[in-house]
Amino acid sequence: MSIDPEHVEQFVRACRRIASAGLVRCSSGNLSWRAGDGLMLISASRSWLAAMNEEFVTTCRIADGARVDGPRPSVETVFHAGILRERPEVAVVLHFQTPFATTLACCRPAEVNYDVIPEIPVYIGPIGQVPYLPPGSPELAEAVIAVMRSHNLAIMANHGQVVAGTSYDDAIEKAVFFELACEIIVRGGPDVRPLAGDETERLRRIAKA
User: Hey, where are the domains in the chain?
Assistant: First the structure.
């Protein structure tokens, strides 16, 4: 299957939007998109999303992450493919590394209540937790895929974040809202008060309605 050049251009534009939003720096982070017929587009290894062009877009199979066309894909291709394989409603997977969210990923992320603004329970839901495992390793891919079966966003300890979305806009919005919540938590310190538990559950029910 050949990928429509317009779809490649949309992917390139999305990569640049992600970088412009401050969600990645230099060659950190990676993006994938479900292209149909069992294929996905993914950013190439060590590519800069801010400078993305068609030369750094790779086509891979969702079934096993194998490269079909283009340069060597991101080392995290396996978990991108796994999330798309396990979550048929997901079209976009983004691995990002924002300053405040990654700060918390390097502390005790499992002990943090991220429900400090309504956007977290409404747009994202519960935050998944992945222990530190070597980047690009089969063990990390397996752990991320397992957690993302039931979460829209997960923190990889001492590494960064991964988010799943139904579209580019959806994935970017979730990442931006999560970074906002993490900034509030870091800047506010012990004075930050999360939403009450019953309000969080009410908002999650509304989001699912």
Answer: 5-208
**CA–CA separation, 155 vs 186, rounded Å?**
16
Residue 1 confidence (pLDDT): 60
Q: In what order do the strands lie in the sheet with 67-69?
A: 67-69, 57-61, 39-43, 30-36, 92-96, 160-165, 153-156, 128-130
DSSP state of 45: T
Coil vs helix vs strand at 156: strand
How far apart, in whole angstroms, are the C-alpha atoms of residue 92 and residue 172? 10
Cβ atoms 33, 168 nearer than 8 A: yes
Amino acid occupying residue 123: Y
Per-residue pLDDT tens for 55-101? 999 999 999 999 999 999 999 999 999 999 999 999 999 999 999 99
Fold of 5-208: L-fuculose-1-phosphate Aldolase (3.40.225)
Give the residue from 128, 103, 106 showing the smallest Cα distance to 185.
103
Radius of gyration of the chain (CA): 17
